[in-house]
Amino acid sequence: MSNEAKKNTVISNVTFAIEMLVMVVLLVLPLPVPALIPLVVLASVALEVRGLGWSHVGLQGKHAARDSATGLVLGLLVASLLPLAVGQAAESDFLLLQGNGRALVAALLLTLALSAASEMLFRGYAIAAATRVWGDSGAIAGLLVGAVSGTIATQPASAGAALGAFVIGLGYGLLYFASGRRLILPITMHFVVDAYPIVLEFLRN
């Protein structure tokens, strides 16, 4: 390997480390807005600087209908089984939802936005960044980094909750790979899993 190639490798490794460090720091800082908002902005800028866009990391309409349907089915399956796995009923963090249609719509829109942002960052961007540095072998590192970052973003209240979030994050990442590195499938599943308890709470009259 030439000195120039070694230099480029070092720069790529350092750049990746800095990008992931910034992601983690923003996730743990007490920001006035959800950390996903500035992270998506920064990731968009980073992609633009490289002459890329979100479509290059999987946000595209190819097979969108099939991926959405698959994500819906898998999401409903996981969301319905999740309470059995953790030994408690699914609960929503949203209050005043029972019978409140406007609150339900607002909660679902927020959930959709956060689900999309999470998958764009923790699957699409993180995996693409690792692959850019280490090639296809770096995809596993990106998968793990994305799952860890996603776990931090959920702010788990216990070790069990953290483990569950990590495993689900790995699942989203594997679906990202299984779909040909397209984001619609994991975004849809993520949204359904998070929206399921919200809808249940709305229906509790």
Q: What do these coordinates show?
A:
With about 200 residues, the chain is mostly helical. About 75% of the residues lie in helices and about 0% in strands. The protein contains 7 helices and no strands. It starts with a helix and ends with a helix. The mean pLDDT is about 90.
Element-level helix/strand string: HHHHHHH
* Largest sheet descriptor: none
The number of E-state strands comes to 0
| First and last CA, distance | 68 Å
Q: What integer is the average pLDDT?
A: 88
- The residue fraction in helices comes out at over 70%
- Helix tally equals 7
Runs in which pLDDT lies below 50 for 5 or more consecutive residues are: none
The share of residues in extended strands comes to: under 5%
Rg over CA atoms: 18 Å
The structure class reads mainly alpha
Shape: globular
Draw up the topology in text.
Layout: H1 3-28, H2 36-49, H3 64-86, H4 101-134, H5 138-154, H6 159-178, H7 184-203
Features:
single chain, 205 residues, mainly alpha, 7 helices, 75% helix
Give a quick precis of the structure.
The protein is 75% helix and 0% strand. It is mainly alpha-helical and 205 residues long.
